[in-house]
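Sample A.
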Amino acid sequence: MSKTIANTISSVFHPLLVPTYALVMLMNLQTHSILAIPFKFRYILVGFIFLTTFVIPSIFIFILLKVGHIKSLKMQSRRERVLPMLIIALSYYGTYYLIKQTSVAGLVTLFMVGSTMLVLISLIINYATKVSLHMTAWGGVVGTLLGFAIRLNYNLTFVLFLFIILSGIIGTARLKLDAHTPFQVYLGFLVGMIGMGSLFFLI
């Protein structure tokens, strides 16, 4: 894998885009909670999630870059990551809170509260070592599918296989760019998968 391809993969599958990708995926699971959402409202919901979990935090992080709080958008040092991660956690929680006020429930709200939790856990881990936020995010998607499949006896074998392979490709890209060590990549994936998957058995 070349660094150009690795950079492209890292950008296309950026952690801030994961809630939008995940929501589109969840919309296609045809579960009771998803089917209860009016079809037209699903598109509005996807747009809302994209706005609050990608556009808004990206604007704030870009402002941090312009005022010199962070040196680059890659945020290579642990210290640089603290404030952006807090902004992301607030954005995710705000999204969860607003969605909860509507008739939407089930997987969508569970995923958003879980995403908030994963960012906060990653922030705590960040004080000891860097953790791959890419892998935490995609591990969270795998954990969502795994928890849903086990708890509700839903066959998602093929989808799970695809997302595990995708996570492996993303992890390889992060290693190719020397953004993380193998430990940080595996740690991120396990934190995401176990953290998100456990919600299905705690809530």
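Sample B, a different protein:
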Amino acid sequence: MQKIAVVVPCYNEEGAIGAVIRDVARVLPDAHIHVCDNNSTDRTAAEARAAGAVVIAERSQGKGHAVRRLFSEIDADVYLMLDGDGTYDIESAPRLIALLVAERLDMVIGKRMPAHAQNTYRPGHVFGNRLLTVLARFFFGRGFTDMLSGYRVFSRRFVKSLPVLSAGFEIETEMTLHCLSLNLPHAEVETPYYERAHGTESKLRTYRDGMRIVLLMIRLFKDYRPLAFFNGVGAFMAALALILFAPVLSDYLETGLVARLPTAILSTGLMVAAFLSVNAGFILDSVARHRLENKKLAYLAQPPWASPFEP
């Protein structure tokens, strides 16, 4: 049997975390449950311990820091990650794990489907999720339909080769792009999604965290596909330079004089910057390929699935 670790990053989830842990222990009796208390100001840690979980404290605030601490300290064959707010369907966990093991995948995402017509999604969250899905498909040519879901199952190879750099809620985006960039085997499974437990409050801020996630995607696009990124920047500056230079050239052909000298200098500078951007793209593309090779080697350095193996 595979060793299963359940990891739960938590911040102020008193009133929900205890029920989550008890449900996990009932559905996955052989799993080891670990909760990372991320500076909670309520009884989250005490409630988690009372329910039977091992509690780890992480002082750096942010979900990304909590996930990094959990992944670095826990060793297992299969990792199940979920939030401690009671919104995810624990009954679906064995199905997600069985799929991961049976098909030797590296990540399975629980696609959130509102249960019983509950109002579980705020309009801003729905729009943000769709926007990020479109951006991922535009940047990388493929993606998931619910890339912000925090309900995920991972292989050991995935967890130990993931360099967690995110601090906050953009951690799910980083995980998704790590999977897509290395073209790792993955799947997405529909799971019910419930309202938060009564008396608890969502820590996700739609506009602030959404902007951080968008900026992260742009940065990762620059890091993973610098040739496309800097060629796009260069093409924009070259087009702007030509637009600005058009009236300067027209005046020169009519009068033989450069009447708009500042505009001519600006357009020339933009064209030079465009060439430099394209040149930087070619150089950084080689660097990015080398980094991707190192990440792939780090992934391959981890032992593969045992064979034969059991779900």
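Observation for Sample B: The CA atoms of residues 75 and 216 lie 28 Å apart.
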